[in-house]
Amino acid sequence: MSYFQCPYLSNVVELSEERKKHIAENHPELFPEYEDRIPAVLSTPDKVRTSERFKNAHLFSKWFDNVRGGKYIVVVIISEDWPVNRHWIVTAYITRRLSGGTIEWQKK
What we know:
single chain; mainly beta; globular
């Protein structure tokens, strides 16, 4: 299990081995080559959106000029309040443009 600080959520975010495997299998363009960018996405995102599909999911995104010629990395976090306050990464991916969701916060 890996843990990352997330100032926006005022908490740590978990990344389990099972979710790492999921990301590596379903988004091989991200893992393992750009896995080291996850902390930056969570600590200094460009934008945080709420998911259209899941009310308790946040999509953190950050633009990187040096990722595949210029792309966003998106990290999707599920937040649970009960029975404990917990935040965990369900998936992450690389994209050219952001779509969907409602902007919750944006860097100025």
